[in-house]
Sequence to fold (512 residues):
Amino acid sequence: MLLTRLAQVSQEVAATSARSRKVALLAELFRDAEAADVPIVIPYLAGRLPQGRLGVGWKVLGRPVPPAAEPTLTVAGVDALLTGLAQVSGAGSQAERSRLVGELMSAATDREQRFLIGLITGEVRQGALDAVAVEGLAKATGAEAAAVRRAVMLAGSLQTVAEALLADGPAALERLRLTVGRPVLPMLAHSASSVAEAVGKLGACAVEEKLDGIRVQLHRVGDEVRVYTRTLDDITDRLPELTSLALGLRGERFILDGEVIAFDASGRPRSFQETAGRVGSRTDVATAAREVPVSPVFFDALSVDDRDLLDLPFTERHAELARLVPEPMRVRRTLVDGPQDVRQAEEFLAATLERGHEGVVVKALDAAYSAGRRGASWLKVKPVHTLDLVVLAAEWGHGRRTGKLSNLHLGARTADGSFAMLGKTFKGMTDAMLTWQTERLQELAVEENGYVVTVRPELVVEIAYDGLQKSSRYPAGVTLRFARVVRYREDKRPEEADTVETLLSAHPGVKP
Ligand SMILES: Nc1ncnc2c1ncn2[C@@H]1O[C@H](COP(=O)(O)OP(=O)(O)OP(=O)(O)O)[C@@H](O)[C@H]1O
Fold:
């Protein structure tokens, strides 16, 4: 497929507000696409770069190059060139990158140049586009939109489903059923401001402790065990203790959902950093496992004996879980019948906090498991509120922090897929974090202006703050009071960051 086609459709989709028109435009595009183009077309439309980072600065991109008169670039050709660009390293790499970018830009028409610059700098990310693409894909291939959505949920990626559908038609969806050994995206939770609000919304529910560890999905098929993270990375080899525990369970074929966490000798949770460090360490796993052993705590069962449990009510899934997994390996919970039992739920929250955990997740008993979604039937309640924001830029530090990228510019998502800066912070960072972020942010840099380095909006950081206040200095009309870094959230994509809208609705007293 020619890049010009994609650039034009992308422009038209952005220009129309009618969803049906967007769907029709995408359906037409998919009908014309080769299956092999799809893994490129889908991220490009959403403003994502499959290569992640290119190491190309604004200095290189901003240099005007006369556009080509005729469109000749293909989507596959551009992708190959960008892959080459991402791999350039060593002496003379800056010059080589410049040469490649020059080559690309001079082969691009005016429209293509604008599209490519937007893509490479990550200026506009159309997070909502994937949902429209699902409908476009259904329309293009004659599949049911709901069936495509479920397949995406189970396959964990729209691209996989799109390739299969375009190659083999609706019959391909059959292959994409829940299978032990193939991870699915986990169900996520919404927030509630109190246990009373959560129980009021859900009625009969389970109130479970919310452990601050790392989400894991555990698969067992006979003697084979696999462990996946929330982003579906295979971390089996890093957590050998999970394999032995799984092999000791009664069933032979199952998928369980839970959290791994490190406890200290007295049974209290160790810090999140310790658990995350352990789960992250790939070398000398044996020593790491001795120093920071982790335990799984399961809260859901997605498949047992090849029976797909996803559409069953939580009560029934939990009964399967209880049959397989003995008590100490299951999350602590209390069942409440509805708002009349709010006291009981509040006491459970208090006891959970007392034991050192971060809060509770309140779950409707009759709800199905909505893989990959923030289901309305799981509500988390945490006394300490934090925000997940995106790093837009960083400033070179001075004094003790000379040579380090320190002060972060923080952005929340806006309705149009861009990010609005909410403020800055250099507080809360450990030395290790400073070193890590300096390296990582330089890889994402697109422009350096004095001491401010602008980056592709890719990194999500969790921020604690004391309140919101009006400010004419920032685009959303508000800024954070005493923002400080809690941790980086590499498991989250920028599309999952908090929005200006949710922030404002959490602070009804502040009017921008
Ligand atoms: N009992 C539980 N049930 C479900 N999730 C739990 C539970 N205990 C801990 N968790 C963790 O909490 C997360 C649910 O919160 P959410 O889906 O909003 O993700 P999150 O944004 O990472 O949450 P947070 O930032 O609050 O940790 C799950 O991904 C899981 O890792």
